[in-house]
Amino acid sequence: MTLLELTDVTASYGPVRVLEGVSLSVPEGGAVGILGANGAGKTTTLRAISGTVRTGGRITFDGRNIRGSRPDKVASLGIAHVPEGRGTLAQLSVRENLRVGAYLRKDRKAIATDLDYCLDLFPQLKDRINSRAAALSGGEQQMLAVGRAFMAKPRLLLLDEASLGLAPSTAKAVYAAIRRLRQESGIAMLVVEQNANLAFTLVDTATVLETGRNVLTGSADELKGMDEIRRAYLGG
Amino acid sequence: MDTFIQLVVDGLSTGSIYAALALAIVLVNQATGLINFAQGAMAVLSAYIAYAFTQAGLPVLLSILLAVVISFVMGAVVERFLMRRFERGDPDTAVVVTIGLLTLITGIAAWLWGYNNRQFPSLFPLSSVEILGAVVSVRSIATTLTIVAIMIVLQLLFLRTKLGLALRAVADNPSSAAFSGLPVGRLLMVGWGLAAGLGAIAGSLVAPQLTLTPGMMDTALVYALAAVILGGLSSPLGTVVAAWMIGILENLAAVYVPFIGHDLKIAVPFILIFVILVVRPQGLFGRKVVVRV
Amino acid sequence: MNRFSTLMRNRWVQLGLVVVVAALLLYAPLVLPVFANQTLIRIGVYAVAVLGLNLIMGYAGQVNLGQIFFVGLGAYVAAYGVNQDWNILVVFIASLVVPGVVGLLIALAAARLGGLAIAMVTIALPIVGVPLAKRLSDFTGGSQGTSARFSSAPDWTGLYNDQWQYYIVLVVAAAAFILARNLVRGKYGRAFTIVRENEAVASSMGISPYRYKVLAFTIASIFGGASGFLYLVAVQYTSPETLSFPHSIGLVIAMVIGGAGSIAGSLIGGAYYVLVPQLTNAIDPSFTAISQGVILLAVLFLLPGGLVSLPRVIRRLTRRRTTRSPQGDSPQTTPAEPPPADAAQEGPENTERQIRP
Predict the structure, then answer these.
(1) Chain B: nearest CA to A145, how far in angstroms?
(2) What is the CATH number of the domain that holds A191?
(3) Contact criterion met (CB < 8 Å) for A70 and C339
(4) ipTM of this complex
């Protein structure tokens, strides 16, 4: 059962076209990776889905066309975007950030349960629950960003460069928590990641972008075995 | 000593009016990053609306409340249909837009009600009471208390309610807030609406003293801006304290510094600003004042 | 169209045009009625004030809501000098220097705040200025104001007063416009633009935003003083009303409507400042303020470059309609209009509107 489907999606910033035609699909509960060099259009693909860039082509979520919808409308359908650079609310406390994540929900009890789960998933956040997000370390901010997205109880998580700027051990810890989240919640994920080694610990399939187009799509195992992928993205 | 106490109490009262207007300006700035130079003019229009209700025979309190509600809508409409288009652009252009709004609204008030002074009925009795041997007007005390009460309500709104949390989230980072499904545009409208409502209260409370004219709040706007600068844009509390300080200091200076007198007391906050700028460029309380990204 | 614009770019054609315009300007007052001359004089007076405002606001990007204060100051200094029987040249220089120094002092403090704080401080200038002018009555004549008759035409000229005043205004205004044009086309103009566009970039290039803001503000104040001197030439009387708050706002409106960041736009702005209120007052005085606001907002929505950009916009529209060849015309030398804001929607690209502490 396909949850998200992109067909020949184009996108541009002003006159500059960044996506020339990207197609991919994410099944319910699946995890798909997007690989590619800088400027290949990975981030823009996520932004096309969440409605923060002008887009052409066809984007359906759960059978509904969502192309051109506003970001808050996309979020209300069950897509949570963790943007590159984390995008926490800097002046708000950790608890407030998580409560903002649950803004669209009305079930107070379930929100409290999920908050506890979130703090169980990221124990570091528990100690800093009343600190301003700006005061957190990079790793903690990334955890908070993922936690905030989870608090929305989304059906699909868009994850952009969750390891960016983190120490290798921190990045691993973040991915371990996200893997656990995936197993326990069944949330589908679309993952942009520079570090393909990390990405392959999380995703089942992946697609490779080059200058705004898919050039290759396959299962994680297939791709890992390919020489050019190894050379370009796996460091040897 | 008697005069001194009276001057301080009166200063607190006018300072509270400046504080209300200054908070409205801070509210808009937090939400959209703009300085709304039309905030004072909008407050005057609100006061005229309240005045129109009193002329129609409604009680003063009800008239003011109705004006607050209408002003809320007015603020939201202004955000949606006028400011929205300029919010993401060059901040200088947005400032000029608010200048246009200032001119337009002042013009509307003058067109509907003329330039003659109108007597606005006071919400509070004009009697006075004795405190520590000084005769102090009830109106001053009541005005101060009203504004303090409103500030507490606002504080509770922002810190204790879901709407307040959402408003703060949008002020912090609108695009990030949208990813959590916050309707950013609607929340900005609410922010402008609240600011306009706050301005309506300030305008209605100061109108009995100043008498109602289209330019009534020009001076108050300047005081409020001074309070915003002194308080540092990031700190609502700092803004309020600065506004009170300005109210008290200008009152004292008017009486005790012969050259300043009542006509030149408007210069007091600016002398203050210039002195402080030399000593503490980041403002009294803020971390850093009005830096454009 | 194309042939016309190449023709216009020819040096000799340009020079010829300048000569024709200059001759017209010199000849006009001799044949025009008094009222027309007075109107032209007032346009010249305010065009200089708007020009100064344009330097600080349009070019250096610092919103200044107090320009009228310097106009008033210049007028008062000139009136004082005339009444003290100073040499007219000394009067003129004093009416430039005093506002310049005051502007420098204000800018030294206000520019420390950066961003919109300059606007927030300068809005106070007319509001403090009016009671100050009333208070310093020995110098200003208080609420009554002060008059100074010094601009009657000397006998040897054989001119009427309005014609003589016209020539004074023409000479000073022309000098101001030429100076401003050279300024913005040179090193300082480029520095102003960089400061306006991005202060961080300016700093990294060794251009101190603070210093250039102070410089631009001071120059604007001097232009304001010159405008004040001309005001006294034209009106021979000044009072606190000259520097009132609505007039200051009026200058900003005129500057934007004429065209921010354009020398020619300043002239249009001066004409707007004088003519349009005259027109709306004639129709119905109570509509003047409303119409000012409406016109300004309409211009900001439809013609953000001001009236001066109207020919360019029309040309672009007609070109779009007629030719759609990929080559099109020769590349435009003027910067393109900002893309029509799709901004009405919330959402896309809305990251950069915060004033971040």
Answers:
(1) 10
(2) 3.40.50.300
(3) no
(4) 0.89
